[in-house]
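User: Can you recover a sequence for this backbone? Please restate the input before giving your answer.

Assistant: Of course. Working from this structure:
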């Protein structure tokens, strides 16, 4: 496959999945502008390193790994800076019971160690299969299963025993 063909396939993949990419970045930083920056940086990194993509069937796994690593790098670099969306500022407005539960869940997920948070996001918010998650995170399938179990156990303790994903 030529480099031009790879570029075209990557471009098509990025355009077709832009909402999922944004959603994944947003799940890490909770800010629209930062999530868009992360996606943009990820696209740039992907296009610069397109020669490393040896097998086109691994395009999704390859790009998700870039996106996750870029998100984590962004968080590390901006650890002391916290930017709030207008949505976050609306916390003081009256809310429905479901919104409170969702916020509790999101706060609990944000408190998880990175190795657990990534797995929860990929499995339950991006609806990826265990083997896809293993490929993206470069982990053994059994390790993914064990860490998912541990993450869910931690969430149940944090949120309450009645919690179910």
């Amino acid at each position: 496959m030529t480099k031009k063909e790879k570029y075209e396939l990557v471009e098509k993949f990025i355009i077709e999945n832009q909402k999922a990419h944004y959603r994944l970045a947003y799940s890490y930083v909770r800010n629209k502008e930062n999530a868009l920056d992360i996606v943009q940086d990820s696209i740039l990194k992907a296009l610069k390193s397109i020669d490393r993509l040896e097998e086109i069937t691994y395009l999704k796994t390859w790009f998700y790994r870039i996106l996750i690593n870029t998100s984590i790098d962004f968080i590390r670099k901006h650890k002391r800076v916290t930017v709030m969306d207008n949505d976050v500022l609306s916390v003081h407005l009256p809310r429905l019971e479901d919104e409170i539960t969702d916020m509790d869940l999101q706060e609990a997920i944000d408190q998880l160690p990175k190795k657990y948070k990534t797995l929860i996001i990929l499995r339950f918010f991006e609806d990826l299969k265990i083997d896809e998650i293993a490929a993206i995170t470069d982990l053994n399938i059994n390790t993914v299963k064990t860490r998912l179990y541990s993450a869910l156990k931690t969430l149940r303790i944090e949120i309450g025993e009645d919690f179910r994903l």
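That completes the design. The longest helix spans residues 59-77.
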